[in-house]
UniProtKB/TrEMBL annotation:
<dbReference type="InterPro" id="IPR007506">
    <property type="entry name" value="PMDh-L-like_dom"/>
</dbReference>
<comment type="function">
    <text>Component of a hydro-lyase that catalyzes the dehydration of mevalonate 5-phosphate (MVA5P) to form trans-anhydromevalonate 5-phosphate (tAHMP). Involved in the archaeal mevalonate (MVA) pathway, which provides fundamental precursors for isoprenoid biosynthesis, such as isopentenyl diphosphate (IPP) and dimethylallyl diphosphate (DMAPP).</text>
</comment>
<feature type="domain" description="Phosphomevalonate dehydratase large subunit-like">
    <location>
        <begin position="1"/>
        <end position="383"/>
    </location>
</feature>
<dbReference type="Pfam" id="PF04412">
    <property type="entry name" value="AcnX"/>
</dbReference>
<comment type="subunit">
    <text>Heterodimer composed of a large subunit (PMDh-L) and a small subunit (PMDh-S).</text>
</comment>
<keyword id="KW-0408">Iron</keyword>
<protein>
    <recommendedName>
        <fullName>Phosphomevalonate dehydratase large subunit</fullName>
        <ecNumber>4.2.1.182</ecNumber>
    </recommendedName>
</protein>
<dbReference type="GO" id="GO:0016829">
    <property type="term" value="F:lyase activity"/>
</dbReference>
<comment type="similarity">
    <text>Belongs to the AcnX type II large subunit family.</text>
</comment>
<keyword id="KW-0456">Lyase</keyword>
Length: 392
């Protein structure tokens, strides 16, 4: 691999052991993937920062980087932690608050932006063609597929390494030769389009090559749900979306065509709850302000939730701070709003019989973890279900 003089000095320890370690991780990964050079990144996004996932070994690793003098050399954002940063949630377990605070303190002192969200593109929308080093699978898919930026699906340590050096390896989806759609996926049925979580699960499970999806719609709210599900259930870091993905940042060499029927996605939808306690969940990925406010309007006009129903909404810390009054009103109606976290990277304080959500990613990770029956519907369907109106 060719390294510039600055990169060689980093690798040789002239910038300290932390930078040398980080550069070594990047170089070794790049060499294993056939990279011949490194490129500068405009934005790193670090996942693997929730204590409930990384526990003491991960905490100690991050702390050691800070104590060793590690500092962000590029704009760097942070994925959700395992605690509710509003301090108001009754559903998110706060047992690990002290441990999470140690991780957060180290990250912040290294110069990372404490956004605690899985939608870093909300804080800084990527430019077309710029190199990123992102470690959150759903965000990676959105960056490549919607914004036309370039990032691989990095593990937490590799995204950390890019944050501390400002570089990543030139391989994978950074190489235009690997951004080639080979399977045309045609979405005709509006019922399929109307359940992006189920469509995403089907896409991840059934299509192995990079797909070109026609007819999935163009709204960011639904697209990020679909992309998150396909990234969770499969390995899709790039889904070419006809009419959305910027031209010039992908090519096509179609060798197969598939039309998605309603029967294809039905197996991923689960069973509509008929009784028992219900947890409705919205916000995986996190919600934009306009998404949150639309849910707020739908809830307020319906009033207080029934006793055996709860609705959990997860949002970025910044959205919580902007809409604190709305959050308090929702709490009075029995709605739990958590900021800077989600149940995928935290623990819940209660057990429910049913999980109703619009998120295929949440179904993929939570249905077994919560040992609950699940039902996958759209946003309005979730709200209707927790109010006993039926999710259809």
């Amino acid at each position: 691999m060719y390294l510039t003089r600055e990169q060689e000095r980093m690798l040789n320890g002239e910038f300290g052991w932390v930078v040398a370690k980080a550069m070594s991780i990047i170089v070794k990964t790049g060499e294993a993937l056939g990279a011949t050079k490194l490129v500068e990144v405009a934005h790193a996004h670090v996942s693997g920062v929730s204590y409930s996932n990384i526990l003491d070994p991960g905490l100690e690793f991050i702390r050691s980087l800070f104590l060793g003098g590690g500092r962000a050399r590029v704009y760097t954002t942070v994925n959700p932690g395992c605690v509710d940063y509003s301090g108001l949630s009754e559903l998110i377990d706060g047992s690990y608050a002290r441990k999470q605070a140690v991780i957060d303190d180290s990250l912040i002192k290294m110069g990372f932006k404490p956004v605690f969200t899985c939608i870093p593109y909300y804080h800084r929308p990527p430019a077309q063609g710029e190199f990123l080093a992102w470690g959150e699978s759903s965000a990676v898919a959105v960056a490549n597929s919607v914004f036309g930026a370039s990032t691989n699906r990095e593990g937490g340590p590799l995204a950390l390494a890019s944050a501390l050096t400002g570089f990543t390896y030139y391989a994978g989806l950074h190489d235009p030769g690997n951004r080639v759609a080979r399977v045309l996926v045609y979405v005709k049925d509006p019922r399929v389009r109307g359940n992006p979580g189920a469509l995403g699960l089907w896409l991840g499970c059934r299509v192995r090559e990079i797909p070109l999806v026609r007819g999935a719609g163009q709204g960011l709210a639904d697209l990020k749900i679909m992309l998150a599900a396909s990234a969770a259930s499969g390995s899709h870091a790039l889904v070419v979306l006809e009419g959305v993905t910027p031209r010039g940042f992908y090519s096509t060499d179609l060798v197969d065509k598939v039309e998605v029927e309603w029967g294809d996605v039905e197996e991923y939808i689960g069973t509509e709850p008929g009784g028992g306690s219900i947890l409705g969940y919205l916000g995986c990925p996190h919600l934009y302000p306009w998404e949150f406010l639309e849910i707020y309007r739908q809830v307020v006009k319906r009033g207080v939730l029934p006793r055996d129903r709860r609705l959990l909404i997860t949002i970025p810390v910044e959205v919580y701070e902007r809409h604190y009054i709305e959050v308090l009103r929702l709490r009075r109606l029995g709605v739990d709003v958590a900021a800077g976290t989600c149940p995928v990277v935290s623990r819940l304080t209660r057990v429910f019989d049913h999980l109703v959500t619009n998120s295929g990613k949440a179904v993929f990770y939570l249905s077994k973890q919560l040992k609950a029956k699940y039902y996958l519907t759209n946003t309005l369907g979730v709200i209707r279900a927790v109010y006993g109106e039926g999710a259809g």
